[in-house]
Structures are given as structure tokens and as C-alpha cells.
Request: fold
Amino acid sequence: MPAVVVLGARNLGGAIIDRFALSGWATAGVARSDETIAAIAARGAHAIRADALDPAQLAAALAEARSTLGGLDAIVNAMSVAAPVAGEPWGGGPIVDASPDAWERWTAAISRMAFVFLREGARALRESGGGTLVQITNGSALRAVPGQGPLAAGHHALRASVTAARAELAPAGIRVCLLVADGPIWSQKNAARIEADGLTEDQVLSQPGIAAAVESLVTQPGNAAAHELVLTAERR
Reply:
């Protein structure tokens, strides 16, 4: 039975676990909070408590997953590290007004998350003889919006790291993929904001739809593989 580990397994990550479980995969989720650990277990997945931003903890979590699941074929990073402070514009604000602390919270935090995931994920898959890494990002990896420069810089760095890792790891039988969710994602948490923008549920991206795209990246044939997939919502 193939095995997948999902980082950031609360909302979108939970939908990804559900999708793979439905397809017969052994599943595990990595999280820090009691609430998310309980939600992972309730899905029937193996729950691992760890800070996936800490290299040593992530390495230990992936080793546990490989041992418990009997192997490791794919690792998906669905984490978000956005951590705005009160009164700060979303995305860090204009470059001319942004503080070094804002750069750390947005640019550096996102870039570091991707680095830790790619490094430790690649090492874990190398021990398993190969597999697939999928990093999920958003439209900020494609374009920079005024007032959100620090956010865009972080996601552009993430995309560059994925591109470099893709070439570096291919000889080891490790496929590295980027999935860009370019648009709002429907969830109960985001529903009020999406509706305030005049959009309905069928005009934005769905979590099950993104999960299906992740599965397609992981299971695609090696002789006709896509390494970067952009999902956009159909706005009618």
C-alpha cells in the first residue's frame, strides 16, 4: 500500500488526507495542536505531533511515518505560516513602510518553511528509494501585488527553491512538484470574506478540487510528468 504524509493537516491538508485515503493510500498527518491531532486521527490517519518548521522534529516525524506506514511514497506540504500582527497590512505592507520584523514574518518565514520541507522531505524519500514532494503555494508565487511585497517575495523564493530542488533530486528518483492555488479557497473560515467580495462557493477553488490535483501530481506517469500545476477558479 502506498503511503503519504501531509504537513498542515487541518483544513486543506485534511481534504488531501481524505482524498488519498479514499484511493487506498496509507495516510499520516503532522501537526502541533491538540485540535488538529484529534482531527487527523478522526480521519483514520496516523497523527504525528511535531513542529514541521523545525528540521529535527520534521525528520523524526517522517521517520516515524515511514516506520508506521511501512514505507513513504509522497509528502505534501499544505502548511501556511502567515502570521500578521495587529494593525499590520496583510502581506507586510508597502516595501517603503515595512519593518525588518515584517520581512521576517512574511518573506523569511515562507522561504524557510519551503527550505525545511524540501530538505527533510528529500532526505526521507531518499531513504525510501524515491517518491514525490508536493509544495502548495498561492498566486503570490506568480505575481507581486502592491502592498504585499514581503508576502510575494516569500512565495517567489519558495517557487525558486522548488525549481532548484526539482533538478537536483531527479537523479535520485524524487519528483518535486509545485501546486499553485491561484485564487480564494472555500472553507467555513473564509466564507464570510469570500461572500463579502461578491463571490459564491462555485466561483472559487474548493478544497476537494485541490486535493484531487495533488493526487494527480503524485500519481502521474514519469514519462509525461507535470512539475508545476496552476489551478484557477472559474469566475462566471
About this structure: The helical segments are 12-22, 34-42, 55-69, 100-127, 149-169, 191-196, 207-219. The chain has seven helices and seven strands. The CA atoms of residues 130 and 172 lie 7 Å apart. The longest strand covers residues 174-182.
